[in-house]
Amino acid sequence: MTDKPQDESKLIAERRRKLDALRVDGNAYPNDFRRNATADELLTTFADHTDETLRAENVQVAVVGRMMAKRVMGKASFIKLQDRSGQIQVRLERDHLAEGVYAAFKKWDVGDIVGASGALFRTQTGELTVLADEVRLLTKSLRPLPEKFHGLADQETRYRQRYVDLIVNEESRKVFRTRSAIIAYIRAFLDAQDYLEVETPMMQVTKGGAVARPFTTHHNALDMSLFLRIAPELNLKRLVVGGFERVYEINRNFRNEGVSTQHNPEFTMLELYRAYADYEDLIEMLEALLHGMAESILGTTVVRYQGEEFNFGERFARMTVEEVVRKYNPDLDPARIRDRGYLAGICKKLGVAVRDNDGAGKLQIEIFDKTGEHELRQPTFITQYPTEVSPLSRRNDADPFVTDRFEFFIGGREIANGFSELNDPEDQAERFREQVAIAAAGDDEAMAFDHDYIRALEYGLPPTAGIGVGIDRLVMLLTDSPSIRDVLLFPHMRPEVFD
RNA sequence: GGGGCGUUAGCUCAGUGGUAGAGCAUUCGGCUUUUAACCGACUGGUCGAAGGUUCAAAUCCUUCACGCCCCA
């Protein structure tokens, strides 16, 4: 954007002239007007007061906000001021204001920030209104707002200029209030169970805790490369070693992958660890959390999302990975469901690439992702993930091919991932060595060997279970948002070109 | 990475080869109970960018940029 007024639209140039006039008259950006109530406080407090009682009570109020409507009828006007709580109407009468104020007001624009004080009354249609005996322009807005009826519809502008979206689109404000309420609900839920909220580094020397490509950055003074974390997992488990038996972190992870309606390069995860618990305890906990959250946030256990209805009022379904694979591949021979060569043949039929070092477990997951994941519409816990694809999970005691792990799906999307933690340092070291081998074979998503983490496990990680919950996807679900960008205040965008 | 759709006034959108339009906003005038206020007049555009076809391009073609959706 340019600073040269001659390049600006006439609308902006017009407002800039008005600002120049304000500067001549005095302080164009005053900060000495104070309100004594928000719009919603007034609407709530005086909801039952008639015009007669209001006039008898002579309730003096001072309100502020952005002028979202301006209706001038000769010597009197109505305006709507929008503050953080909502909108309140103000009536201005020329003869009820100081000399010249009304004439000045007529030059103000929709979008300007205004303060007004006076007594409350009710209009003929019953709307609570402030009859102004003082009104002041607090901040001049130089840019016109989008058209009042349709609002701002252009997706690109809504994401790039979120401030405009928030000014004019109440639905957008609501999404972000709901987001905040969801996170507050989670904190209250966990705090009540004596979990400790912690913060662990975003910048890490060793990448680990998940299978994903990292962003790299560089520390100049130390002249070293650092990874932006793909997960906080290993640090949180170090804290459990340290004796914080219940910890959680709600924070950003960074993954250097594609951008889509469900992926943003940085996204928010709840990650939680609980000692002396197993993955089934966390399934129960997540279920209770989500049931209560839907009731608290939505006021119902029926979650409507993009034309589907998800039932949050009953026990969620459970299936194993192999059950899903069999259900959605009815021709698959169950006796050979762990036969690497057999599964490779099925993958080829499905058009899934098979790598030489992919084992049966990895191929099961490929088939699961391709044929089953999208079908998991109603909330479902999927358990018993192959050990091969679960390098941090505890092996199942009865069946070491799988781990005590689950993922949770709603609407065909992964919402959460949890497991009983692998706390055997020798098994963990072996899993890290396998990851290193996979990385050496060319998989840039594989984990590195984290020597300090092994050392921490050698001090003793108590039997522990952990879970990660994708907050953005949860918010999408509870706000009926089709794209992750709708629930991120500033979603990642390619740079805008300013010329 | 592939495919589809889109980009026209500040905003929301029309305009499929022949003089760039509407509503809202802006500006001016009127109006002391409006609710997308209303009435009247006016103003506002390198039609995303570059190139090409054509007597003539917002419109057809090519490339690029950005966005949205689907697929990998």
Quick overview of this protein structure:
Helix content is 33%, strand content 24%.
Question: Would you give an account of this structure?
Answer:
The protein has 499 residues and is an alpha+beta fold. Helices cover 33% and strands 24% of the residues. It has helices at 10-25, 39-45, 51-57, 101-105, 155-160, 162-168, 170-191, 233-241, 279-298, 321-328, 340-350, 360-372, 425-440, 451-460, 471-479; strands at 60-73, 76-83, 86-93, 113-122, 128-139, 196-197, 203-204, 216-219, 224-228, 246-254, 266-275, 302-305, 308-311, 317-320, 380-383, 405-410, 413-420, 464-470. The strands form four sheets. The protein has an eight-stranded mixed sheet with strand order 6-10-11-18-17-16-15-14, sandwiched between helices. A five-stranded mixed beta barrel has the order 1-2-3-5-4. The protein has a three-stranded antiparallel sheet with strand order 7-9-8, with no helix packed on it. A hairpin with a 2-residue loop joins strand 1 and strand 2. Helix 7 crosses helix 9 (279-298) and helix 13 (425-440) packs antiparallel against helix 14 (451-460). The longest helix has 22 residues, at 170-191. The protein is elongated, with a radius of gyration of 29 Å. The termini are close together. The relative contact order is 0.09. Mean pLDDT is 94; it is low at 1-6. The structure holds one RNA strand of 72 nucleotides.
